[in-house]
Amino acid sequence: MTSTNFAQAQQRLAARRQAREADNAARLTTQRESSRARSQIDRFPFPFSRLGTAWDAASSQEGTRPAFRVGQVDAELLDDELLELLRGQVGDALKYFVGGHLKDDWSAEILLALRAVLFKLTVWDNDATYGAALQNLKYTDARRDGSVLVPPSKWQKSLYGLATVFGRYGWDKWENHLLENDDGYSDPSPRLRRLSSITSRLTTMHAGAAFVSFLVFLLQGRYRTLLDRVLRMRLAPPTSQVSREVSFEYLNRQLVWHAFTEFLLFVLPLIGINRWRRWISRTWRKTKQIMTTSDDQEKSANGELSFLPERTCAICYQDQNALATTETEIMAAASSGGGVIGSAQTDITNPYETIPCGCIYCFVCLATRLEREEGEGWTCLRCGELVKECKPWSGDVLEPPKKSPTAKVVAFTEDAKADEGDVEYDNGDDEDDVNDGEFVSVPQDEQSATDSTDTEDSEGFEETMDNEED
């Protein structure tokens, strides 16, 4: 494109812009002339004659170029959330000083410092708060009209910081002062009542003015707060070439992770991850033992803590000496401590023995390990056997042979004419024996004598077998 064509294109654009502005001005003029109420209002004295102009400025949206209202409101909410987040972090950091009352006694000063730092780093340096920067907005001077946005002047930003930082701090301190003087038990002084009444009225007036300003903001979209309206500072995009795009990437990622977490919380108990973890760890331990065991080593069962004395609970010792994993390290630690392995804290309490290996442990330790395995068995630390049950330790006492609780002692005779001394004993399980002979009851004294005789015969037989083996 030549320079002549470019100049002609610029002239055509300028002509179109002027025609558009002329049409807008003509339409506004027509609307004003057609309004009878406006003509009647203009006849009023000076203070009331400006009501028509004010109404036109409030109701008309021509030339306002408002930014998205939801973006401006979100920016304010983000700024408040950031301040509360920093306040909570500072409170957690100061709760260990001066008995934890520092954050309560100096809460107003903490807020003053946080607001001052945020104002310096945001509005004063970059003409935008953190929330406004996230929404692609910046403060501009609304007194300057034109297509080029002008940043606010220093006195505007100074007044903004004075009102938002020191103004809020002074108002909070003033309200706290009134509350401290009014204890609620005695009648306050007339001066205090008058000051409290004035403060309440000012608060009500400010709330009403802020509400009206917010309604106008919803209508025009220019000034978000009452302070912005007074100082003529408005939020606007830094350039008109950037379109507003709402990214839901973060929200989608949070939703996906939340759904995935709930799915895992539902599925993991059904899968039994602890059971698989124990199976994998047990398999890895056995594989490691097989790899470290040489071919010429004895193939007998041997646990990792088989060298411990019998009075020491292997589970208690393993829990208290988790760092020492090999026998060499444990023996070295024992030699440095006087040559004694274990201590009074690792002695067995309430001994229980495992089934089938018979190793002795504390009841609590053994029951905890067996319950943790959920019936799959636990590897004994002394012998390496798989243990699924336990029983109280008998203390190396020989238990008498148990008799069948359902056994019934009966006797039969093959011939009814046989002597009373020729008596046979039977358990009565075979029905043929009952049909062959007659039933003869045996007295209890004879039965006890017979049992004692059988016991003596069995003991004598065992002694004879031992002598033959020797």
Keywords, separated by commas or semicolons:
three-stranded antiparallel beta sheet; Herpes Virus-1; disordered C terminus; 470 residues; 4 domains; elongated
Number of helices: 18
Query: What is the alpha-carbon Rg in Å?
Result: 48 Å
The helical percent reads 55-70%
Structural class: mainly alpha
Tally of domains: 4
Count of DSSP strands: 10
Global shape? elongated
Q: Summarize the biggest pleated sheet.
A: 3 strands, antiparallel
Describe the structure.
This protein is mostly helical and 470 residues long. It has four domains: 17-55; 68-236, no CATH class; 303-392, Herpes Virus-1; 410-469, no CATH class. Helix content is 59%, strand content 7%. It contains 18 helices and ten strands. It has helices spanning 3-34, 36-42, 46-49, 51-59, 69-94, 102-105, 107-126, 130-134, 154-181, 190-220, 226-231, 249-271, 273-292, 314-320, 327-336, 363-373, 431-436, 444-469; strands at residues 138-141, 233-236, 351-355, 360-362, 378-379, 386-387, 389-392, 410-413, 424-426, 438-440. The strands form four sheets. Strands 4-3-7 form a three-stranded antiparallel β-sheet. Strands 9-8-10 form a three-stranded antiparallel β-sheet. Helix 7 (107-126) packs antiparallel against helix 9 (154-181). It is elongated. The relative contact order is 0.05. Mean pLDDT is 74; it is low at 336-340, 407-453 and 455-470. It is a multi-pass membrane protein.
